Amino acid sequence: MHVLFLTQYFTPEVGATQTRIHEFARACVAAGHRVTVLTEFPNHPHGRIPPEYRGRVFTRERMDGFEVLRVWVFARPVKTFWTRLGFYFSFFALASLRGAFGGGRVDVVFATSPPLPVGLAGWIIARLRGARFVLDIRDLWPAAAEALGELKSPALVRMAARLERFLYRHADRVTAVTRGFVTHISAMVRDPERVSLLSNGASVDVFDPARMDPGLRSRLGLGDRFVVTFAGLHGIAQGLDAVLEAAALLRDRPEVVFCLIGEGPVKSALVARAEAEGLANVRFLPPVPLAEITPYLTAADALLVPLRRDPIFDTFIPSKLFDFLACARPVILMVGGEAREVLEAAGGGMFVEPGDAPGLADAVLRLAQSDPQERVAMGARGRTYVLAHFTRQAQGQRLVELLGAEVGGR
Hints:
By secondary structure, the chain is an alpha/beta fold.
């Protein structure tokens, strides 16, 4: 079968969405299927399109045995409501146009959301090309956008909610990354059996504790300090202000240092705050490509997975939870709900209430003062659990089966 993956974000951009779709594409290729990925010109999260893509509208390239079609987007470094709107709808328009014509027969369109207009583009392409339409839900949108303050207009919220319901009801199948998402979506469709759990997982060959760089800590000036590392998008949802507050509480404990790796819309504000408060125990590092990130993670003594405090996030499981557990390092989790259930089932770390800076500071100190062998055992339990239940390979095989069933039953 020919599978068309539609995603606004993709490799070489770094992030959970990019990794999820890339691994799914590889799984389909490995199963002997033809794969096309339709995506944007790389720009996320800094909002700058690389020189080699400028002055063009469409490009075509090969990657890992599949074809990648890219379209221009209205990308801007400054993220405002209007620039985001232009960003999302430029992709919707050009991806719909590029995907609707040419390329031979398509059997199934797999569109991943958010942003929600990607789902609408996927539905349009599928209907025009006579293909099955599978909608993949990674976040509950617009609920998450409302929680983050990114969507405030009641009229726009109503429009987005109508689009959400339309897509759920008109998709041939909906996949979602958590049980909470499945429950939410099932309540909005007539036939809940069309809604399937397709969770995230870890690329255990990439996030492997054996991939260490013994000299990295020294080169980063970390020495023998207790290192707590966060790696990922520095955005509103991550609630990284709590990390700076915890660092302030631990400023008189020089043996502890926080490392924040990545980029994002709130990073400049975080850097400015750390400098203003004289937080010498916080280190900011630039983004690191996926293929190179594991030595930075395994150089840490503990890994941090936070989200800001909001009930909507109790239905989320950040994909980095699986990746970090796979690195065999204790994880400090600041996300409730299903994510907490996963951590506690794994026995791979400690839970702290989202936004609880004193709780985070206390958890860090308890880990730092614990027996090193206890930390090693905790990390080992986390990796063992991920290997048994949450690998990208297993999720890719499940996707191939779901898509095969859809195409076979058309």
